[in-house]
Amino acid sequence: MATSTGKRLAGKTILITGASSGIGRSTAFEFARECHGNLKLILAARRVDSLKQIAADIAGEFGDGVRVLPAELDISNATQVREFVGKLPAEFQEVDVLVNNALATQQEADKFQYHSGLVKGVAKAPDIVEEDMNIMFMTNVTGLINMTQAILPTMLKRNGGNGAGDIINIGSIAGREPYVGGSIYCATKAAVRTFTESLRKELISTRIRVIGVDPGQVETEFSMVRFNGDKGKADAVYAGCEPLTPDDIAEAIVFAAGRRENVVIADTLIFPNHQASATIMHRNPV
Ligand SMILES: NC(=O)c1ccc[n+]([C@@H]2O[C@H](COP(=O)([O-])OP(=O)(O)OC[C@H]3O[C@@H](n4cnc5c(N)ncnc54)[C@H](OP(=O)(O)O)[C@@H]3O)[C@@H](O)[C@H]2O)c1
């Protein structure tokens, strides 16, 4: 039996950036689950092999009613983004929902060898490495804007020129509350928040919904990457805490996209139960 969310989302085309892991991957599964196998998904990231595996897993679980396009894409490259959107196969061209989720952290920059930072993950001025700073801004901010600009024209043309579609930007508590050692990541997420709010105001005469989702602590690949695959250190981040799962955030994203067209879940802050701010966490003794 389809839920009201499932009925509203059925047949739509959803584009998710950063879909190869974490929240993006979970969001792909959650849309497919909610729509009972009637959906088109464009999954974008750099690790196309992971995307192909996710496409195969979705096909295995939901059948071929969910059409999946795994797409290798570096969102920080504006030319690549424009070409990618311009060359989407006909059946995927009308994107109804854009989930701007991809993320680069300083650790990501290290992983892709833009720089091997000495102050990994907690760099403070004046020790912030220029390449790290650039890759974080180019992905988290410029990349998100590249995607939005590339997709918006088709959304604006719909509905007799009144526009239709959803742009869902994944921010963070870090964009609301700067913390020590997170200056660049926090600055990128504050920029996402500001861009999201400006965009909503700029598009107010259209029927395009601009939605912001700001998670608190979520357990994803992030900590494993941060500690170079050292599971002990990664686990210590969550010691005595129960973080959110990527599925928790995916459910909120799909809920927002599945509301009645006149309902905009404009701004959502999601914490696990032990968290009250970027730095206030209750930890049980372990
Ligand atoms: N985890 C948390 O605690 C947390 C808290 C608050 C907010 N968030 C937000 O949630 C979102 C998802 O985070 P996550 O924790 O799920 O991270 P994650 O597991 O590290 O996933 C990040 C994704 O971004 C992709 N990506 C990175 N650079 C890219 C680029 N240039 N072009 C295209 N894709 C790129 C990665 O794929 P490839 O490497 O294959 O390109 C990966 O799929 C982010 O916006 C993050 O800021 C997370």
What does this structure look like?
The chain has a single domain (4-270), classed as NAD(P)-binding Rossmann-like Domain (Rossmann fold, 3-Layer(aba) Sandwich). The protein contains 10 helices and 7 strands. It has helices spanning 4-9, 22-34, 48-62, 78-86, 106-111, 130-157, 183-202, 222-226, 231-237, 246-257, and strands at 13-17, 39-45, 66-72, 97-100, 165-170, 208-215, 267-270. It has a 7-stranded parallel beta sheet, with helices on both faces. Helix 2 crosses helix 10 (246-257), helix 4 runs parallel beside helix 6 (130-157) and helix 6 (130-157) runs parallel beside helix 7 (183-202). The longest helix is centred in the middle third of the chain and has 28 residues, at 130-157. The radius of gyration is 18 Å and the shape is globular.
